[in-house]
Write a structure and sequence with these properties.
There is one protein chain. The chain is an alpha+beta fold. The chain has two domains: about 10-170, Nuclear Transport Factor 2, Chain: A (Roll), CATH 3.10.450.50; about 180-320, Nuclear Transport Factor 2, Chain: A, CATH 3.10.450. The protein is built from nine helices and 14 strands. The strands form two sheets. It has a seven-stranded mixed sheet with strand order 2-1-6-5-4-3-7. Strands 8, 9, 10, 11, 12, 13 and 14 form a seven-stranded mixed sheet that branches. The longest helix has 17 residues, at about 185-200. InterPro entries: NTF2-like_dom_sf, SnoaL-like. This is SnoaL-like domain-containing protein. It comes from Chishuiella changwenlii.
């Protein structure tokens, strides 16, 4: 049962259409998805205002090459402004660009869009933050982009990050976010909150993703028990990395009869494994999770990580049936 007058599936279709218009360099359709006054901040494009200018810049990303884009790690919620007509949508974007000589580059990005819901079918992006985390392969295929910092540490003169999680993450920027979707959707989005927190090195947000009685195997840190051990180990593990990104999507969720605990399987996506983005994804591992509702929020209580390659969503889902 949906919890607002907007359907989550409609918003996800809007995002899928938008990134398809972007990948296909359809400048007019890109512009149609944007509000006239849209603000766009990107570490590879710069700061751009207005739908015409933003659409032109996104249109130029493909150049004469082949570009595929896909999203994961979705979080969708209503912004509590009293009007119920604004939505925030955070997600990871991964892409593959190639040329006629079979040169290939892959990249991953963290994104936040805010959407004005004019009605149930008409939506416009009013704010778009897009931060490319990494590029692998032939970066010359993305020559219109400004260089990213990549794996090196901060140096004097570096620009301010486009996304500052402590200020910009939906869970930090807005209080009392309005749920969109079903209870299962909000259980699934608990993993999006966790992956965002560890990838953005937002330890305060990370604490909110584990229950007080959390335990499990957190590869490569091993078996950990208790919130202090888990957060302490993850914090030390995370420090040396300049960037990381956990692409994943929920495969299966089952809510228990008590309605305050659940089981979930999450599949780990590795974009570099793709030759091209197709309907069927490749997965490198999966996470069997036990979830509990604590302080009004779904959190992870038992956590496991199992490396295993799957060539399709259906294959991983069949395997997940053994656990749920």
């Amino acid at each position: 049962m949906e919890t607002t007058r907007y359907h989550r599936s409609d918003i996800e279709i809007f995002l899928k259409d938008f990134i398809n218009h972007w990948a296909n360099s359809d400048e007019n359709k890109i512009a149609d998805d944007l509000a006239p006054f849209v603000n766009f901040r990107s570490n590879v494009h710069g700061v751009i205002k207005g739908k015409v200018n933003v659409a032109k810049n996104l249109f130029e990303d493909r150049s004469n090459h082949s570009l595929s884009l896909a999203s994961s790690n979705h979080f969708i919620a209503g912004i509590p402004d009293g009007k119920e007509n604004k939505v925030v949508f955070s997600f990871y974007l991964y892409g593959i660009i190639s040329d006629e000589n079979d040169s290939i580059a892959t990249f991953g990005a963290t994104s936040i869009i805010e959407i004005l819901m004019k009605d149930s079918e008409t939506m416009e992006i009013t704010d778009f933050k897009f931060s490319v985390n990494w590029i692998e392969g032939d970066a010359h295929l993305l020559q219109k982009w400004s260089p990213i910092r990549g794996q090196r540490f901060w140096q004097p003169g570096d620009t301010t990050p486009v996304i500052v999680s402590e200020l910009d993450a939906p869970w930090n920027k807005y209080k009392n976010l309005i749920p969109i979707g079903t209870e299962k959707d909000w259980i699934m989005e608990a993993y999006s909150r966790y992956s965002w927190a560890i990838d953005q090195n937002d330890i305060g947000l990370l604490i909110s993703t584990f229950s007080r009685a959390a335990e499990g195997n957190l590869t490569p840190m091993g078996d950990l028990k208790g919130l202090s051990n888990i957060i302490g180990q993850i914090k030390d593990f995370r420090q040396p990395w300049t960037q990381m990104q956990h692409f994943a999507e929920p495969i299966k969720v089952a809510i228990n009869d008590d309605e305050i605990s659940a089981h979930m399987i999450v599949g780990r996506i590795v974009p570099q494994y793709f030759e091209k983005l197709e309907e069927e994804k490749n997965y490198a591992a999966f996470y069997p999770l036990t979830m509990v509702k604590e302080d009004g929020q779904w959190k992870m209580e038992k956590f496991n990580y199992i490396p295993h390659n799957f060539r399709s969503f259906a294959g991983l889902k069949d395997y997940a049936d053994r656990f749920i």
